[in-house]
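Retry 2 of 3 after timeout on previous attempt. Resubmitting structure tokens to design endpoint.
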């Protein structure tokens, strides 16, 4: 049986908080990939990035589901259940070009 996410009902339409990783932009750091919180719209960097801001946001807030966001890729990840989430057409459009990409 395939693992299932128990948090998909909490996926919301959100407005991205920044045109890149919010915290990396503030400190002048680079990122590898972007992740979008599907609860509040926070844009953070992935676990392959030096600061792992998307995971830090999850740890600080408990918001479980992120979306692959550079460009929107149609998948999500649930930090709690540790499973991929198929977002299908329920992706978040970008507000504009990503200013920096490693």
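Retry 2 succeeded. Sequence:
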């Amino acid at each position: 049986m395939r693992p299932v996410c128990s948090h998909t009902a909490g996926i919301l339409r959100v407005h991205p908080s920044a045109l890149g990783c919010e915290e990396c932009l503030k400190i002048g750091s680079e990122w590898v990939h972007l992740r979008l919180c599907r609860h509040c719209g926070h844009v953070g960097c992935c676990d392959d990035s030096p600061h792992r801001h998307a995971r830090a946001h999850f740890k600080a807030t408990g918001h479980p589901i992120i979306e692959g966001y550079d460009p929107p890729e149609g998948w999500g990840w649930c930090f709690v259940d540790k499973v991929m989430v198929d977002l299908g057409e329920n992706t978040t459009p970008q507000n504009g070009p990503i200013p920096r990409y490693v």
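Attempt log closed. The helical segments are 22-27, 53-61.
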